[in-house]
Sequence to fold (119 residues):
Amino acid sequence: MTSYDLTATEEALINSYILLPLTYRVLERDLRLLEMSKVKFKHPYYTLIEKALKQLAKDLHVTKAEVFKQKIKLYKKDDLHYDIWIRGWHHQKGYHPKLAAHWVEAKVTEYLNAKTHCL
Fold:
């Protein structure tokens, strides 16, 4: 029996499904830290992060809907390890913490830069 290889689209979708919530948590945490900080002008930073969080929430909704549409089942083992069932095939997906952190940092930068151009 040969295993079913994930397509590039499925791989990207699964990566987004797993790592976008981590990106959301990072931005939420940064927002809480900003509220407690002694930064003189908090409002511009607060607004920037809030807009990024709103867009990220929309993207998460689209990602989850697409995962459901493609009938992909993901079962969380821990934050960075999942069992995946797609078209009857079982896959395991795991991320090294440093690689996940790099991906999340890139996504945070992407969302904040996208919002900067809109201001």
Strands lie at 72-78, 81-86, 89-94. The longest helix spans residues 8-36. The chain has a mean pLDDT of 90.
